[in-house]
């Protein structure tokens, strides 16, 4: 008999399902106490299975990453960090441009009262020096190379700088500066022709106003600078890309919405400063990246930025509520480089040359690096859930497919079969009734014809 009621369907499913112990509950031939015992056991098994599945899910969401240290240093290739040069103060250029502005704005017959109240990006570019006027005499391990071919321009929130071995420039052109067990020496040398700031950064980082003073080196002409440093990189498991930023507590280069091609912590802080300027002063300074001329501050806006300088140039942690500065919710890059400054040695020149000698040296090869491993991947989660359900309730994937199939496709099929049976039954009854009526009618007609024939045959004989 086809079952369409909910009670009969559930009982039929429990009798034939593949979940362990359930068919004992629906077996009417067993004593009620045995069926009740199996009901308790099944409930406890499902409860224990649910607890373990929830625990596996929480571990997958909150703690899928293991962060450790790797020491197989003999196989590594270590790169020297990116080096950026930002012009600090070119008084001669500033004087010449200022003198020209005075002649244009005030020493003519019709002085413009709005002169120098806007369009500051144009004047800022006038006082910036090119690469050839900034540095020269570049070499790596005593092999000379063209400075401006590898020190490429990069826009920053301090103006245009020149950076080497960065992946954030428009057309990256790195110089091979690799140190390993075969090539243990790594020394970068160049001369700086203007007062500048030197930044030693990871290849994905950019110089910013909020850059740590630990990574900077203030350059004065007539001095020699020698910076000794060490580098420790981070190696990522290939499965890291399958996790979310909240799970791994870092962002991949591709997870970027900032003004630079790739994500990094410093690039994120630039975007944070941009939004803070808009929020406080409703405009951006003329050095800010990804801004149009209409978004640049005029003289009133520049005064606002100057008034809130400490709020816009100092980073503070989220918990420092009463400290001045801005809070940026920026995660570190998953590929960031840890750069440790061992020593900065500064000495003055005996000659009167107006330049500074810079030397960046990798002090020694690293003996360890960080390793980010995925200890709970999606496959691990599937295996854990499958093992738990198999152990406690004897289920497989097909068991759940069977459950869904039984109460959807099977139920609809049973309902359709019963409906068709009822329809066919009614049609058969109607056909039977029609046949009976026809038989009755035909029998009546035959009786009438018999009576007529009988009377016709017997009537003349009676008359005689």
TrEMBL record:
A cellular-component GO term for this protein: plasma membrane
Subcellular location(s) of the protein: Membrane
Main subcellular location of this protein, as a coarse class: membrane
Bilayer-crossing regions: 36-57, 381-409
Gene Ontology molecular function: any one: ligand-gated sodium channel activity
Membrane topology classification: Multi-pass membrane protein
InterPro entries on file: ENaC
Keywords, in A-Z order: Ion channel, Ion transport, Membrane, Sodium, Sodium channel, Sodium transport, Transmembrane, Transmembrane helix, Transport
DNA-binding found in the keyword field: no
Family: Belongs to the amiloride-sensitive sodium channel (TC 1.A.6) family.
Protein name: Sodium channel protein Nach-like
